[in-house]
Each structure stands twice: as structure tokens, then as C-alpha cells.
Amino acid sequence: TLVFSKDFSVAHPSIGVCFPHKNKSTMSGSSNLAAMKKIVQQLRFEASINRLKVSQAAADLQQFCIQNAVQDPLLTGVSSSTNPFRPQKVCSFL
What are the residue boundaries of the G protein gamma domain, all occurrences included (predicted)? Predict the structure, then answer.
């Protein structure tokens, strides 16, 4: 997204370009044009990204979790024979 400050400068944070709107003394015309082209290119790229509705993404995530629940050790637990973090048995001599 573009960010406008009080002095009417324009910034695009995702590509790190900032240039003044009316003050031409700080930037030459060619570098100003190059910065504008870079911003337009980035904005076109961002506009071309396919987006999902949040409801569709949530439904897909829920379906994925349900399909993979049988393989999730947090839900099914880990058998003591395959658990590398089980407490070690202590041997003691009497």
C-alpha cells in the first residue's frame, strides 16, 4: 500500500521507495521516473496475485486439519516405545 505523509511525500514500504511529491530539488528527474516505474511494477505484481476469501481459506485449513488428524501426534499421542523424550529407566543396585 502507498503511504502519504503530511508533506505529501509518497512511500511504498514493501519496496522501500520514498520520494517527494512536489519537491524536485532532492531527486533528479530520471531517478524519480525510475522510482515511479519500480513502484508501478510492484503494484502491478501485487494486483496480479490471486487472493482467496477468508472463509474459503478457513474451510480449506479446517479440511486439511481433519484429513491429517490421524497422523498428528499432538492429537493421537506418541507410543512410549517410539517416544525419544520418554523418561529414562533408572537402574539401582541393592
Answer: 29-94
